[in-house]
Design goal:
Blueprint lengths: L2 H14 L5 H13 L3 H7 L8 H18 L4 H5 L1 E4 L2 E4 L10 H12 L7 E4 L5 H10 L4 E5 L2 H14 L6 E4 L12 E6 L6 H4 L4 H4 L15 H10 L3 E10 L5 H10 L2 E8 L5 E8 L1
Parallel strand pairs: 3-4, 3-6, 4-5, 6-7
Antiparallel strand pairs: 1-2, 7-9, 8-9
Protein name: Release factor glutamine methyltransferase
GO biological process, one term: methylation
GO molecular function: peptide chain release factor N(5)-glutamine methyltransferase activity
Length: 286
Amino acid sequence: MTLDLLLTEGVKVLTEAGIEEATLDARYLLFEVFHTDMTHFLLDRGRVISEDDQVLDQVKQYRLMIEKRSQRIPLQHITGSREFMGLEFYVNEHVLIPRQDTETLVELILKDYKGRKPVILDMCTGSGCIAISLSKIGGFDDVAAVDLSKEALKVAKRNADVLLGPGRITLIESDLFQAIEPKSRFDIIVSNPPYIPTEIIKELQPEVRNFEPMLALDGREDGLFFYRQLVSEGRRFLNPGGSIYFEIGYDQAESVSALLEDAGFAEIRVVKDAAGLDRVVCAVMK
């Protein structure tokens, strides 16, 4: 048995299961299990691997991971991690897997508030990737992160403890603003809320619709339910001149901008992601 043969075996299983990036996923899992990289793989791919207990366990683990991936379980759930903003986040089935699209949201806030010390509220935090990245990279030390899910908050706490240290951000279990202290005021409210219309969810890839939390996906009938709540309730928690930042679906810029305008927000901007799609809407409270 060689690493090359193991990779070929994995690619075949994933291809037959209809995985679009079968080669990439099989290679990633192989590298993960055998603690190697492309350079060392190319050097060692044809070498017969030993059959000691440790290596046999690695082979067994690799095949188990391939089997899970063939069942359309997301790669990140199998490995338990996802890179976001250059940081490694723990993820599981209780949180939305961080996407590169969301980096557009974080990067915009880092740019807009460079050299400043805003008080930040991250609503629908999930894995904590937004709040933690802002605190870690921006040096913002007054960040609160909110989620309705107890299990999601456990994931966010684990990530915060590892990447920031215990107690660096405040984690709050709340149905949107319900448990937020009424006198609290923030300079920034940021959110990547559930924004997929209910009927569209059934059309998503199996990895998303079957394995990612519905609570983090379902934006109700038109996908705008949570934007309406965040806009209408968020005003009273913002300091004068405070800003609100939303990740949006590629076709929601006009609708979300209209909600902000109707609520009296000014300086409304739409920012595109790396693919050129509308991805962020932000505005300032008058």
